[in-house]
Automatic annotation (TrEMBL):
The chain crosses the membrane at residues 34-51, 71-89. InterPro entries: Hypoxia_induced_domain, RCF1. Keywords: Membrane, Mitochondrion, Transmembrane, Transmembrane helix. This is HIG1 domain family member 1C like protein. Residues 6-97 form the HIG1 domain. It is found in: Mitochondrion membrane. One of its GO terms (cellular component) is mitochondrial membrane. The keyword Repeat does not apply. It comes from Argiope bruennichi. One of its GO terms (biological process) is mitochondrial respirasome assembly. Signal peptide: none annotated.
Amino acid sequence: MTVNQPPQFEKPELNFESESTVQKLARKTKDSPLMVAGLSSFFIIAGYGIYKFRNRGKLSASNYLMQLRVTAQGAVITCLTVGVLKSLYDRFNRKSE
């Protein structure tokens, strides 16, 4: 009588070396460049908004910050949407070829 043994699986190679921040950013840029562009646009808009905070005119501080947040989020969402549309186009374009 034979006993059913589970199939033998190969052990995956695990790399326990830690990545530096620069290496991780380089890998992410290569994998999804529009995500990095979205994050960069967010920080640029946020920095510009902080710089212009003193000259906001008669607008209240909370209203100004709310508009700034919506603008920064809109830039990120736009970059991510373009990335998703590009990946969908690439996927369906490859299937037709």
